[in-house]
Design brief:
Shape: flat
Radius of gyration: 20 Å
Largest sheet: none
Structural class: mainly alpha
Number of strands: 0
Strand content: under 5%
Length: 163
């Protein structure tokens, strides 16, 4: 990586951005920081989750801003990752010698999409309910292992809601 040729136009401070960073990394860091701030106020219990969101939006100073920043950074991160993966696929950058990098990228994309989905469910409002219903319906259509995935997805969430 240190021997990777960097175009002369972006040497200097921007060269490190080219080699080690990207907009999705910045959005990921925003996600971490705002997520920590939200975790200090949010109550992840089925009977108190929505009320804690109302508290964040209307009573906590700048809570609405923190929550909005977290949401838009997550949405932007998903969009940028999908654009990046499409670019890599269309340019054939997944071919030898980078097959393992492609597989790792697909794994990270799946993890990001999973976190995006579970973040929507955490609100525990009507949108979360119907999002979970649609997600469970889609997971149930997977051949052979569909029922197992639905049980895993809905069973873990429903058990957490009961407790």
């Amino acid at each position: 990586m240190m021997r990777h040729p960097v175009p002369r136009a972006i040497e200097g401070p921007l060269g490190w951005w080219y080699v080690f960073g990207s907009a999705s990394l910045t959005l990921f860091l925003i996600q971490i920081l705002t997520g920590i701030g939200l975790a200090l106020v949010y109550v992840p219990a089925a009977d108190k989750a929505y009320e804690s969101l109302l508290f964040l939006n209307y009573e906590q100073p700048l809570g609405w801003f923190l929550r909005s920043l977290h949401y838009y950074a997550g949405s932007g991160m998903v969009v940028l990752l999908l654009v990046h993966m499409t670019q890599v696929f269309l340019h054939g950058a997944y071919k030898y010698p980078r097959e393992l990098t492609w597989v790792l990228g697909i794994f990270l994309l799946i993890c990001t999409m999973g976190m995006f989905f579970t973040g929507q469910i955490l609100r525990w409002d009507p949108d979360a309910y119907w999002g979970l219903a649609v997600g469970g319906s889609m997971a149930g259509r997977v051949p052979v292992i569909g029922p197992w995935i639905v049980h895993l997805l809905l069973g873990a969430i429903l058990l957490a809601a009961i407790r």
